Amino acid sequence: MNELQAQDTDTWDVIVIGAGPVGENAAQYAIQGSGRTAVLIEAELVGGECSYWACMPSKALLRPIEVLSAAHALPGVLGTRLDPAGILKRRDAVIGNRDDSGQVEWANGAGIDVIRGRGRLAGVRTVEVTEPDGTVRVIEARQAVVLATGTTAAIPNVPGLAAARPWISRDATNLAEVPRRVAVIGGGVVGCEAATWLSSLGSSVTVLQQAPRLLPRTEAFAHELVAKRLEEAGVRIRTNAKVERVERPSVNEAGVGRIHGGPVTVTVDGEELAVDEVLVAAGRVFGTGDIGLENVGLGKLAENHAPIPVDEQLTVRDVPGDWLYAVGDVNGLALLTHMGKYQARVCGDVIAARAEGRPMDSVRYRDLADSRAVPQVIFTDPQVAAVGMSEREALAAGVDVETVEYDLGAIAATSIQRQDYRGRAKLVIDREADTLVGATFVGPEVAELVHAATVAVIGQVPLELLRHAVPSYPTVSEIWLRLLESREPRVS
């Protein structure tokens, strides 16, 4: 059954509201290898935020910058300049020019139907869909409804900011013209990544961070290394910055990724900053406001745009009957695409097991990673790769903390990778259990280091045993050996 033929029925085994990667995974795992049916409800593009407006376009913009940075750091390599037009053209190719026909084809090939429209819960296992032409239809699920409605960009309540029609992350990742001067409000992941590519493409960038440092949830040395490199690239960073008001006399409807009007004046700590565009990178709003939660007894969540609480099976709490699930950003556990897809796989397996009456004693049917092993890579220059708890988080959780740190630039492989390599690594250890609870790596191309740390954290591998995992030479993985050697010997 394809996208058009989906109009011929009003009942499926599984209904998924939201057809991003998370919703797609939930539908796939819930029905694969069975005769069950599933349908995706999507008001925008099948493939969702990650495919067109977040992960994929942002990394497509950042990769040429990484390559150029490596080339600059290697004597003997010639040809070191960026081609902004070529970068934007490649970005468009990576996101399929925002054409989701391939995603729909994948869904149909997996036996998943697609309905275009906005889905809302209308009752138990019942969904109301408002289609693009305004037609409203009611559909029902035999087994489960999955909410995968994600988040949207937050606009802080600063006088004049919303009226100025600032850029949000979608504009920054899908930029069609490069502003001469940009103020980035927010110094978290989105703000730092966007500052990296905007400055490399020619913008004069000022980052306005309300907190005392960039990337406040990471280890302190991540801020130090990322801030130093951004400043070397010409980015101005203002921490402890209070944005008091924004003024833009001329506003237009230029569209996503185009400058939204005339010059902007941003008042920060009593000083006026003149820019051509403002990018807001100050958090996300949960997609719970208009999905019919009031029809299943969760109206307060909708009123407050709050995340939807779930249990380890991703079943929504306080809704009886084990039929409603929430996966991805909308449940607030970890606002990361890979974690949402992980949750969707667990959720789909749970739906399948419940549909077939199978026991769910295995850890396969529990979300374990969100409570102990969430990995993340920030694709700035240098990269920041981390998993589990920071030292501060571990101490707050009452862990008997031991830490070890090491200079990544002292590893033989990094001197091969580039001259003057700057980076650092840190392990956060539960001293009593002798297991890793967190790890952070900052440096060029450290993204590939984090999965080994993720395995060690989720597997609760004793560090004395981890010493027997021998790193290949000469690779940056030798950092594991150096970190473990840096520990004080354990007294038995």
UniProtKB/TrEMBL annotation:
Cofactors required: FAD
Domain Pyridine nucleotide-disulphide oxidoreductase dimerisation: residue ranges: 374-480
Keyword Iron among record annotations: no
Record GO biological process: 2-oxoglutarate metabolic process
Residues holding NAD(+): G186, G187, G188, V189, V190, G191, C192, E193, G283
Residue sites binding FAD per the record: K59, G119, D329
InterPro entries assigned: Class-I_Pyr_Nuc-Dis_Oxidored, FAD/NAD-bd_sf, FAD/NAD-binding_dom, FAD/NAD-linked_Rdtase_dimer_sf, Pyr_nuc-diS_OxRdtase, Pyr_nucl-diS_OxRdtase_dimer
Disulfide topology: C50-C55
Keyword Flavoprotein: yes
Molecular function GO labels: dihydrolipoyl dehydrogenase (NADH) activity; flavin adenine dinucleotide binding
Segments forming domain FAD/NAD(P)-binding: 13-338
Cofactor note: Binds 1 FAD per subunit.
Family statement drawn from the similarity comment of this UniProt entry: Belongs to the class-I pyridine nucleotide-disulfide oxidoreductase family.
Protein name: NAD(P)/FAD-dependent oxidoreductase
Originating organism: Actinospica acidithermotolerans
Taxonomic lineage: Bacteria, Bacillati, Actinomycetota, Actinomycetes, Catenulisporales
